[in-house]
Amino acid sequence: MHRRTKQASAPPSTVAPIQSAGHEPPAEPIATPLRSPAISAVAVTLTAVFAALAVWVIAVPVAGVTLTAGGLTVSLTAVALVSLGSGCAASLSYLIMRGFRSGAVMWTVIACTVLVLSMAGPLLSGARDSALVALELMHLAVGVTMIVGLRRFVSRSMSRAFDQRTAASDSASSAAGSE
């Protein structure tokens, strides 16, 4: 056998060194904070709130619409609070239902039903003409943003977290098998 005395320089290895028995590598986070389902749900909720506020700003100060519903003037604060409350309820229910088999599909059906029913609110409040259009647009802005946003972005962050957990457990089991 020939023994090499001089090694060719190789690029640095991208594979983590094998740990000796008893020394485990530091735990990696399951999901980065910006990709966690809860943070994604908060981002979607805030986007829905800002969408409703944008409709209010365009309707009231810009277009000069008197926004009244049920005899009360709809203020910017009321729009923000109601859309925030409904967004939080949608996010929380989605995060809970997502854990069940077909939970996301059931949540979507329920959320679409709630959105359709909420569209009757401005009609039943006595709002007319441009005020009715503005209120309906606010309902649509919040509802569609929540439904599409939660299904698209929270589902993606939840699958990433699952993929990272699976990869971490696979690498831990392969490292344990190589000892």
Short structural summary:
The protein is mainly α. The protein has helices at 37-62, 76-97, 103-118, 120-124, 129-177, and strands at 68-69, 72-73.
Describe the structure.
It is a single chain. The protein is an all-alpha fold and 179 residues long. Helix content is 66%, strand content 2%. The protein has helices at 37-62, 76-97, 103-118, 120-124, 129-177; strands at 68-69, 72-73. Strands 1-2 form a two-stranded antiparallel ribbon. Helix 1 (37-62) packs antiparallel against helix 5 (129-177) and helix 3 packs antiparallel against helix 5 (129-177). The longest helix is centred in the last third of the chain and has 49 residues, at 129-177. The relative contact order is 0.15.
